[in-house]
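Standup, Tuesday
Yesterday: got the pipeline producing structure tokens again.
Today: sanity-check two examples.
Blockers: none.

Example 1:
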Amino acid sequence: MLLELARESIYFGVRHDQPPEIEPDILPRVLLAHRATFVTLEKHRRLRGCIGSLEARRPLAEDVIHNAFAAAFGDPRFPPVTAEEAEQLEIHLSLLSPLEEISFQSEATLLTEIRPRADGLVLEDGMHRATFLPAVWEALPDKRDFLRQLKMKAGLTPDHWSATLKIYRYRVDTIG
């Protein structure tokens, strides 16, 4: 049902330039629980959009609908999805667990705490913030490379280190 909601959000967006409204009365209770999600779109196995939320602030169904619309029409790395493209998209959903802060004293101890292929990570330092979903481990299987690339995604240097650096982990349930 979540994949159907995501796809309908994209089709609705092509026609109306906005996400559809959800009707909570007709949805199963489990889809009304607050969850954070990411929606990843692929076309011919290539990334076509990816937008999500890191913290649960709205019902699961609503989060999927809004993130599907945003991935299709608001990812700044790509032009908006066209009606012709909508049919060709593969949709992947990631349902995030709550964020868990990782305690560490140095980059070496941080690296021992990271669980490859299981952890999604959020990096924060001041105004800099970025995340990698666990699926990114496929492209970056080395912990050190994973962390360095995450720092760069956040707009920091690959060797950045500070006392204010925070790292959070999360797990995902994937659909699609």
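Example 2:
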Amino acid sequence: MLSVNVVVVGNLKEKFWREACDEFSKRLCRFCKLKITEISESTFSGINQTLSAEAKNILPKLCGYVFVLALEGKMLTSMELSEKMDKLALGGVSEITFVIGSSNGLDSSVLAKADFLLCFSKFTFPHQLMRVILLEQIYRAFTISAKMPYHK
């Protein structure tokens, strides 16, 4: 079974975000071993210090094939993400990690460790909502692969 890690900076403050993530986490357990790791947001006054401090906590958590969510990344359709995950699994990859940075972005050292820079949209989303969107898209990718009717 594929292991999927989601490394996120920050935590879910509102109950409704936690409930949405819990729902997709529950749905995903039939397809993969899911692990969500929250990294504390740094509170340094300078952006470079903040991103560097967060990177020191993110980098040790990167395992397997690494997708980093970044505005400069490539946009994929849900079908393309599903196909990419299928190809990785068929190619022997047993672990995939997705990284969501803070509202300040990510340090260049984290971007450099990415196997794939993934952009969901040119829109800006709250990071808590982005976690829900990411989990939903991972779930959608698995249902596409399993030829389930969820994806229409």
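Quick observation on example 2: The beta strands are 2-9, 32-39, 65-74, 95-100, 116-118. DSSP finds five helices and five strands in the chain.
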